[in-house]
Structures are given as C-alpha cells and as structure tokens.
Amino acid sequence: MWNIQPIPQYPVINGSVTLSLGIEELIFTASWYKGPNATTPYYILAYYPGPSPITIPGPLYNTRNFIVFSNGSLHIRDLQITDGGNYIAKILAVTQEDKINVTLTVYEPVTKPEITASITQPRENNMFTLTCDTSRATITWTRRGTSISSETQLSENNRTLIFPSVQREDSGEYKCEAQNLVIKEFSEPYTVTVAYGPDKAVIEGPAYVRPGSSITLTCSADSFPPPEYQWKVNDTVLEEKTNKYDTSNAEIEDQGIYTCVVRNPVTLRTATAFVYVTAEFIHEVNENSIGLGLGLAFAIILGVVLIIGSFCLYRKFVKKRRNESSENREEPIPIYENFTAAQPQEDFSYMAEQPQGDSSYMAEQPQEDSSYMEAQPEEESSYMAEQPQEDSSYMEAQPQEDSSYMVSRENVNSCSVLQS
After folding, report:
1. Taking 70 as the threshold, does the pLDDT of residue 242 lie above it?
2. Quick check: 243 pLDDT over 80?
C-alpha cells in the first residue's frame, strides 16, 4: 500500500519538507493537490517522468516553493504556517492507479526563552513573579542546585512563576525551558536576590576602656543588601559609617553607652544594638607576679596548718593537766586528824594553869549545867547521830598536817623547858 511520508517529520517555519512517495515501481504520472479534494481549484502541478520530464503547473503552483522529484515526490521550500494542510497525490503506475493523502503541519521554531522579573530587587514577604518569554512551546522551570519552593505557583500555561510571599531562601539562579516537537531551548540563568533584614544587631568588643590603649567595636546584623551603619556615643552621632568603631588612644571620658544603628537601604528596616563601655585599669600579669602570688598562697596555707597543729597540741596539754588535777584531788589530806590529836595536851596544859578557877566555876553552876544537859539530851544525841560520818571523815582527812603541827608544838614545849 502506498503512503506519503513527510521528511522531516516536524518541519518548521522557514525550513523545508519533502512529501515522499514510497513507490519503488515505475510511474507514469503524479498529480498534487492541496485542499479537501483533488479538483482543479486545489491543483498544484502534474508531473510526467520519462526521457524528457514534463511539469504542468496548476493554480496553486509556485516555482519558488514547489519542486517535484523524478519519483514523483513533492519538495516544499521556505515553509510558512500557511503551507500546512491536507495534500493529495494521484499516482498512475505500471501496476495500479491510486489516490493518497497526508496532513502537513508546519511548526514554529522555539525562540530562545528569556526571563523577566516583576521587580528587580524583591523584598522579603512581598509578592514576586518571574515570566518566561517564548513562543508556542511547553515551559518548564528549574532552579540551579535545588528544587523550587513548594510555596510557589504557576500560571495556566506555566509561563509565569509566582512567589506569593518571597523569602530569603528563594534566592538563587532560575531557568526556564521551552520545548515543542521540534526543538528544546533554555533561557539564560536569572539570579534572584531577595532583600531582607536587618535582623538582630550585635556589637562585639571589650566592655572596658583602658586609658592609653585602643578599643575596637564591631557591629553586625544579617541583612541583604549590605546595610548602612551609624555609631553613637552617649547619644552623640559619630562620623563612622562602617561596621567598625576604632579608638587608638582611649581616655576615661570615652566610657559610656555605644550605640550601633543598622539600616537596610532597600527594605528600609533598621536594627539597633548598644553596649556600655566602662573605664578600667588592667594590670599586666608577668611571671614575677605569678611567682609572688603562688609564694604568698603557700605561706598562707602553711600558716593555717601551723595554727591548727598548735591548737591541737594545746588542747591535748590542757586535757592532760585536767586529768592530773582530778587525780590529785582524790588523795586524802590528813591535816585535821593530827590537829585534833594535838588538842588534848593543849587543853591539859590550860587546865593545869587554872585549876581553881575552873573548879569554882563548876561549883557555881552545877544545876544549870545539869538542867541543860537534861533539857537537850535527845537533840545532842540526834545531832551526833546525824553527823558521825562527817566528823570521822574530817578527822581522817588531815593526818599529815596534824603530825607536823604536833612536831612544832613539841619543839615549842622544849623551848619553854629550856627557858625555864
């Protein structure tokens, strides 16, 4: 069965195509029509091969566009969209005669796509769109190195990529791909940079001013594009416009509140940070001072150990003396017993010196004594009964002292005899 095959399969504007007849046998005539039927109004040409080929043009023939080959195939040059449509071929060959047709489609070539943005510098949390400009093609969006955020949306024909609330994470390189049945084209990468911030500002640096030395404070905040900086000291605006504040020869008067104001020129947002810097003298630490400090610490520790040791020895000594004193108090002191034993001789001598006086005294008050004795016999008896042990212990407690007292008394008596 005969058929017509377009070569190439997907012809494009300004290109060419051959409507090839797949007939291997010898043909006598080949007539071509473009339209709904094979009638004169749609007649293009008739071709008669042989030793002297003949081409008879029809109403639609155009020498600039149409060429017929020796096998009866029709070649069309400089294609336009209007060249597309239904083509009919009437073939008379050696063995048969047939009429066949084919529908030709002329495709527009894909122009190189180009991306345009709704705004050059999108701001975070605002709406933002990218549009792929091309012709009659299926469009696909890609992002270099990663996928496109799931929060994005696409227009009906995929030509526009929509960011309802663009975020800093959406920054990057984007491409759009345009493709039809004929060709595929890619756009140049478009770089999206989302403006954001500044976020929280931070000041880094020492919190003291050392007179005579330098001080450096650094202010930072996450922001794009890079922010503008302004410094204040105790509400006095400084000339510094960078993120660093330097003072080469600080004075005590330089202490106070240092404020850094960060401003984004695109988002117009600001962030502020401050730090209180105080005046402070810092002594340098060297090896000698370290050694002196260690020696002093060792001396203090040694002194504490000696004090604790001395206190322990003192307590042990006091406890020992107390124990010895307790033992000494338990030994009897026999002083009062000897004193009592020595008294009779003294009393006898006294009686010997005054015998008559005592006798007359006794003779004058015999009844009084007797009545007194009779009146208080029980009291004396009870009294004696109540304190027998006390007298005995008292008498037994001082034997040694009485003995010495007796010796001294004997010596006195001896001295008296010698004198007499």
Report:
1. yes
2. yes
Q: 0.70 cut: is pTM over it?
A: no
Q: Considering the domain 114-192 in this protein, what is its CATH number?
A: 2.60.40.10
CATH 2.60.40.10 fits 202-279, yes or no: yes
* Rounded Cα gap, residues 69 and 48, in angstroms: 10
**4-104: CATH superfamily:** Immunoglobulins (2.60.40.10)
Average pLDDT of the chain is 77
Distances (CA, A) of 139 to 10, 11, 260: 19, 20, 48
Cα separation, 130 vs 116, whole angstroms: 6
Mean pLDDT of 42-70: 89
170 residue type, one letter:
D
**Beta-carbon contacts of residue 396 (< 8 Å; ≥ 6 apart):** 332, 334, 337
Write out pLDDT tens, residues 311-364: 787 777 777 777 766 655 555 544 444 444 444 444 444 443 443 444 333 333
- Look up residue 81 and give its DSSP letter: G
Measured CA to CA, the distance from residue 402 to residue 338 in angstroms comes to: 3
**115 touches 174 (CB < 8 A):** yes
C-alpha pair distances (Å), 230 with each of 197, 243, 269: 16, 8, 14
Q: Find, among 72, 43, 193, the residue nearest to 123 by Cα.
A: 193
Q: 281 burial class (0-12, 13-18, 19+ CB within 10 angstroms)?
A: exposed
SS3 of residue 110 by DSSP: coil
* Range(s) within the chain of domains with CATH label 2.60.40.10: 4-104, 114-192, 202-279
Of the ranges 4-8, 98-102, 254-258, 326-330, which one carries the lowest mean pLDDT score? 326-330
Rg (CA), the chain: 69
